[in-house]
Input
Amino acid sequence: MAADDLLDTVRDLLPGIAARAADTDRLGRVPEETMRELVSAGVFRMLQPRRYGGLEAEPARFYEVVRALSGSCGSTGWIASVVGVHPWHLALFDDRAQRDVWGEDDATLVSSAYAPAGRLVPVDGGYRLSGTWMFSSGCRFASWALLGAMIVGSEGRPLDFVTVLVPRSDYTIRDMWNVVGMRGTSSDEIVVDDVFVPDYRVKRNYETSQLRGPGQKVNTGPLYRLPFAALFTTTVAVPVVGVVAGCYEEYLSAMRERVRLSLGGGRFVDDPFAQVAVGRAASDIDAAILQLDRNIRELWELARTGKEIPLRLRLRTRRDQVRATERAVEAIDLLFKTAGGTSLFLGGVIERAWRDAHAGSVHVANEPERAYALYGRDAFGLPVEDNLV
Output
């Protein structure tokens, strides 16, 4: 399937995904039926190399799909986004690592937990890895995991911050995901106990931030010349924005026919305070989408034409990504508040969207102060050194 056609295919799936959203939230996992539909549609192949059956789609197209899915079910959109970006990251690794994952089945999925919670001890031909990682979204659907780790020296001092590729046979999954929002993402805990990792399955994060690595030698398209920080952080912002954008449409539909039973009665739509809230929320949602889309498209155009990606654009992408999340949360808070007491009932669209948006916003990549400070340092002419740029 061409990337241009995939959004239409996904739109046909949205009514069923929306109908399953309450069960997804209640059961704490995306249903197998939904995952089969996403796999069949090609959602997880959008950023995968063509060499391994992928589409190598323009990232803006991928995020359009994520936003649409998130508007119907926040957890489904989150899984599509986070699991869907991992083929891009894997494509930066040594081709032997890519072949390990996709050589026999190019539909194989990969989860992640990027916090440097693991310890790598150098041995002949690679490393010994141990650690425990929280919050690996979609890990039960994946056969491999990308895990953050520190290489440690003989005295236990950290030498380097890396990402490690580990097969499902080398780790266990602990069921610990019992949370208030994004409940269906099954972001459980991964445990590794002293396993061997060959050196070609280890990638330095500094090298990745410098847009270098063995993967670019075999995956030469513009997609793999984009900054990790730009793609990954956008990946955890777009589902939040999509959740709120979808909820906004549901809100308008529900409130058009609502009649107040207090505060003097009357139709809800005639209340000027409700009208102002709608205007503010709509503006915040539009601004979030427009800024995210602008930055991703500019990054893509520079990569496509082989031009250098300036630090200022990378910092602006981070700035606007966290601001998009803030705008989305501000918008859903307005909708939740003006919907009145009906928004409090568990299982409602507005209530679930409110929980999902707030849950997604606490991901470390959506932390606003760090991104704003990085942008401010550069604006003042101070040096900026951070792997998440």
Q: What stands out?
A: The chain has a mean pLDDT of 95. The longest helix spans residues 272-304.
